[in-house]
Please model this.
Amino acid sequence: MKKVEKNIGLKELNPQPYWGFDDLSNKAGTKLLNCFYVQAESKKENGKEFYHYTKVLMLQKFNFKGFLKAMEKGNILVDFDARTGHNHGTKFRMRQNCLPDLYEKVTVIV
Model:
């Protein structure tokens, strides 16, 4: 926070970020319509990285109501990316293991 304060200040953002529910639902729905959620353990041996896939979920039918509930619970956070003195865009970050909460259908593959 001290770096942000020094570089760009802590005053109100201008312009103020705003997302209408329709816009947010459409954008999230097109990017997250269906996906796979894969968890893995990793290790390095002799300079090579190896992965052991421990969990694979097929996520179908993005549910915007689930997205809003996750925001209310604090599982989705807004990230204002302004670390180098100018705006790199605004992002949503999600707490680990919460992605399946955004879908109507969750199928365990592994």
Observations:
- The CA atoms of residues 29 and 78 lie 17 Å apart.
